[in-house]
Structure formats: C-alpha cells, structure tokens
C-alpha cells in the first residue's frame, strides 16, 4: 500500500500541448503535471503534422474559419464555440511565436500557410512542412522546464479520480514504466489533458499510450461524456504495417498530391467537387471502399512535389525510407486509421466538466467545436484556446496557496499493481476496428457491446484496462443509439443523415452500461 499525499497544487493529467500550455498559463499557480513518459514527444500533439488552423492572412477571416468549421462538422457544431475559438486563434499564434515557436515565414515575414481539406483558404500555420506538432511541443517544453511553479512527475500515469459528492478531490497515480501500487494525491482541482481514444482501434495514427484512458476514468467517476460516437478516421495513414500507422499529412493533398488506386484512377474526382480536398470523413470512406474492394489506394505526390517531397515533408520522407518506399518514383500506399476523437468529456465554455473542480482541455474534451467531423488542424487550436480558458477559470475559482506553501511532491510508489494483459488489449482494439470502425451497423455494434462486457468482466482488477473499456463502451453505445449517418459516424443500416437527429449526444457511463446490459441480455 502506498502512502497517500496531499497538495495545494493543481494536478494536470497529461503532458501534451494542452497540458503544457495550461501549466504555463497557470504560472505562478503551482502545478503538478502527471506525465506518462519523460517530457517529450510521446504525446499526440507532438505527432501532429499539419499545424494550427488560424485566419492569419489579410484575405481570410475568423468568420470564414468558423463557417468552414461548421460545414465540416456536419450539422452539430456549437456555433458559439466555433466563433469564439476561431476568433481567439490569431492571438494564440502570436503568443506561440513570442514563446519561440519557429513557424514558417516568407521573405516578408508573413506566416506561410498550408491548405488542408474543407478549408476555404490556405489557413494552417505550419513548421518546416510537416513538423508543427514536434516543434511547438519542443518550444513549450523548454518554457515549462524553466518555470519554477511547474513540477513534472515523469513516468507516472493517472488511473482514477477521487470524488467527494459531485466534486473531484484527488487523483490516483502510479508508475507508468513499471508495476506499482497506486498513490492517492488529494488536491484542490484537476485539469485533464491526457489525449483522446485513437489507440482503442487496431489501426490508428495515435501514439501507443493514447487509448481512451482519461475519458474512461472521468466517465467512471461520473463525468458526462459528449459525442462519443464521433471518431475521425484519417484517410492517409501510410499502409506499411507499422502500429501505430504513420501519418501522411493532408497538407500534401493541399500541395496537389492526388489519390489513385491500383488501376491508376483518381477515384475522388467522381465523388466530390473538391476531390482530394473534400471533408475528411468523405475521403476516408472512399479510401476505405477502395481498400475493401482490393484496389489498393495510394497517395501520389510525384507530379505535385517531385523530389521536393523529401525536403519539404521530412516526416513522410522518414516514414518512406523506413518502409522502403521511394515517393519520388512511386505512389505511397495508404489506408484509413483512427486519428481523432471528436467526442470526449463534456465541457462548457470555460473548460469545466460536469463534475466540480474538474477541467478538461485538448482531445479528451468535447467542447462542441468539432461536431461530427473535425476540420483539419482545428485540434491543436482547440487545445490552446481551452487550455487558456481552463487555466483562467481555475485561477478565478480556487485560491492559490501562499508562496512556498505548495512544496514539490515525491510519492513513494510501493511494489504491486498489475501489468496489463496485452492479448486483452489487442482483442479490444480489433473488436473496435471490426465493429465500431469506419462502417457500423446494429448487429456489429451489439456484438461489440457483448465483447466489451466479456473483456471487462475478465479483467476486473485492471483499472487502466477498465478505463479503456469504459470509453469503448461509450463509443459503441452512442453509435448504436445514433440511427443515422453523420460525419465520422457511418451506419450501413441508416446511410443518410436524419435532420431530426442533428444534435450532439450526451451520455454517462451508467447509461452506456445500461444499454450494453440490455443488448447482452437480448443476444
Ligand atoms: C494532417 O496533417 O493531415 C492532420 C492534421 C489534423 O489532423 O488536424
């Protein structure tokens, strides 16, 4: 048994863009950051290639950005949120620039912007082609390391929230690099910024740790979850057998790269007036269909970029080198992969969850910005905007401790704990890809709920696995309830959008489990 600890620090769970930015915004309010790895590039944000969407060009406007966000979102974007976030975008880019983020600039000093799907303008502020996530993260990590009020507990992960009535009063953490007994850290408030759910699926672009755990433990504590059924699949993960699958950024298509199949046909041309730059859900479904029919889809950068692809898109060049693909000579095989969860812990405009003293920002949150289909590069933007808003709300709600009254914590983790059963994890991920993936139907979703209940019952003491099962159950239950197709959620048995269902979904884990139990009794 490990000894519980108490602190006056705000605990931030996660170490990606939203976590780092919120910790800096909170300074000098003392913060304890729970980072599953040494601070660095293991967070999803660091893997983001495109950049940050922001109307920085004189010819562009926040309103046009909000309009594009709403149309990509397929009818369920919260317009107030979209307008607020897109209005704030410019100031965050300027602030990141001031912190040292090395955004690409032209000879006159203007931001160089990429074009991505469903944007009516080139609007994605980028770094060295496809290096935005990594470079922004490096800038913020340097700042965090230099900020005395931020203590980072590296190689630790959160497992469970402690609640008292409807309020969060602590978080259970353990070592992430070896089995250990969990330690309770009692604290005045918690900000969850620990990523989304992509890794719940067998094919994903997300880092290996990102498997819905944070959404899951918030749900297990009683927090309401919104839009769980809306998972975004990226159309162009490089199909080279790696897990996770490396991304080929949409900005390549913005530069003119095309999608062809094994017969050399540009199949998007017949499917949407914007062809390869159609909204992401539409391109992803087309790629999936090509894969299913055996006409291997490929991203062809040869004519648009030639040999420049190697220097202008270094992440892709590295992937191709590893996989033995020469993108200058050959098209790159691609497939869909779970990429971003539009759903997550329901939050209000200040980043507050439905439990008191709990705030959320980044992909773990569902703010209403993305609707049923996130507009490209709005993810990092949302993380920045809500990290700042949550930090401001925390500072306004809680009384900061007197200087020196919140010393650093040094938890002593006793031996114990449980290693996760890797076969159970792979079974869960395969179940999600097979039944809750790109195309869904009632029979498959019911099978998924049954399998999830069996997987959960077989591992009753593995909290990390139970967190994954909780999020997976919410996704499958909400997908079963939504009898229509919209954005990232496609039902073979209800292939059209139903105008009467153009609303966000809201569900607790108790409600999702009730649906699951009804289904399993009926099978
Ligand atoms: C991409 O670069 O294609 C991904 C960007 C995003 O998911 O926002």
Structural write-up:
Strand 9 and strand 10 form a beta hairpin. With 523 residues, the protein is an alpha/beta fold. The longest helix is centred in the first third of the chain and has 21 residues. Strands 7-3-2-11-18 form a five-stranded parallel beta sheet, covered by helices on one side. Strands 1-10-9-8 form a four-stranded mixed beta sheet. Strands 19-17-12-20 form a four-stranded mixed beta sheet. The protein has 16 helices and 20 strands. The two termini are 41 Å apart.
Short description:
This protein has 523 residues and is of the alpha/beta class. The chain has helices at 17-26, 44-47, 62-72, 79-99, 132-145, 213-220, 251-254, 280-292, 302-305, 308-312, 314-323, 378-397, 422-435, 442-458, 463-481, 509-522, and strands at residues 5-6, 10-13, 31-35, 52-53, 113-114, 124-125, 150-154, 156-164, 167-175, 183-186, 190-192, 225-226, 231-238, 258-260, 298-300, 332-341, 344-346, 358-360, 365-366, 506-507. Among the domains are: 234-338, Succinate dehydrogenase/fumarate reductase flavoprotein, catalytic domain (Flavocytochrome C3, Chain A, domain 1, Alpha-Beta Complex), CATH 3.90.700.10; 422-522, Methane Monooxygenase Hydroxylase, Chain G, domain 1 (Up-down Bundle).
């Amino acid at each position: 048994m490990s000894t519980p600890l108490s602190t006056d620090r705000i605990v931030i769970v996660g170490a990606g863009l939203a976590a780092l930015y919120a910790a800096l915004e909170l300074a000098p309010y003392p913060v304890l950051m729970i980072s599953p790895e040494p601070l660095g590039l293991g967070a999803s944000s660091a893997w983001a290639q495109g950049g940050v969407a922001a109307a920085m060009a004189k010819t562009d406007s926040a309103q046009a950005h909000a309009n594009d966000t709403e149309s990509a979102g397929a009818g369920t974007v919260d317009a107030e949120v979209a307008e607020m976030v897109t209005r704030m975008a410019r100031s965050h880019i300027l602030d990141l620039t001031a912190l040292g983020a090395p955004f690409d600039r032209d000879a006159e000093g203007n931001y160089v912007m990429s074009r991505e799907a469903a944007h009516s303008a080139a609007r994605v502020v980028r770094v060295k082609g496809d290096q935005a996530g990594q470079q922004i993260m490096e800038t913020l990590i340097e700042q965090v390391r230099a900020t005395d009020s931020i203590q980072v507990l590296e190689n630790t992960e959160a497992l469970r929230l402690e609640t008292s009535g409807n309020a969060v009063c602590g978080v259970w953490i353990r070592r992430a690099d070896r089995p250990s007994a969990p330690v309770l850290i009692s604290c005045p408030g918690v900000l969850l910024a620990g990523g989304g759910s992509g890794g719940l699926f067998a094919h994903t672009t997300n880092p290996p740790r990102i498997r819905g755990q944070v959404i899951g433990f918030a749900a297990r504590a009683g927090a309401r979850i919104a839009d769980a059924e809306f998972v975004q699949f990226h159309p162009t993960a490089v199909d080279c057998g790696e897990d996770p699958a490396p991304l080929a950024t949409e900005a390549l298509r913005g530069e003119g790269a095309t999608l062809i199949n094994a017969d050399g046909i540009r199949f998007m041309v017949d499917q949407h007036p914007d062809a390869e730059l159609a909204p992401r859900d539409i391109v992803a479904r087309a790629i999936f269909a090509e894969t299913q029919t055996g006409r291997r889809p490929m991203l062809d950068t040869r004519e648009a970029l030639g040999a420049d692809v190697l220097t202008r898109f270094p992440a892709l060049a590295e992937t191709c080198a590893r996989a033995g693909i020469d993108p200058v000579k050959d098209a790159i095989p691609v497939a869909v992969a779970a990429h971003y969860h539009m759903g997550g812990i329901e939050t209000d405009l200040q980043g507050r969850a439905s439990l008191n003293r709990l705030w959320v920002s980044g992909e773990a949150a569902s703010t209403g910005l993305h609707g049923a289909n996130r507009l490209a590069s709005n993810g990092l933007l949302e993380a920045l905007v809500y990290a700042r808003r949550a930090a401001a709300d925390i500072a306004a709600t809680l009384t900061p401790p007197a200087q020196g009254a919140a010393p650093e914590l040094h938890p002593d983790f006793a031996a114990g704990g449980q290693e996760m059963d890797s076969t159970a994890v792979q079974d869960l991920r395969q179940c999600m890809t097979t039944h809750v993936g790109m195309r869904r139907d009632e029979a498959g979703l019911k099978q998924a709920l049954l399998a999830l209940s069996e997987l959960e019952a077989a591992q009753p003491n593995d909290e990390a696995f139970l967190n994954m099962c909780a999020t997976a159950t919410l996704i499958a239950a909400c997908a079963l309830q939504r009898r229509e197709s919209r954005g990232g959620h496609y039902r073979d048995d209800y292939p059209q959008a139903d105008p009467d269902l153009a609303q966000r979904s809201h569900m607790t884990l108790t409600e999702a489990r009730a649906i699951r139990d009804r289904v399993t009794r009926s099978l």
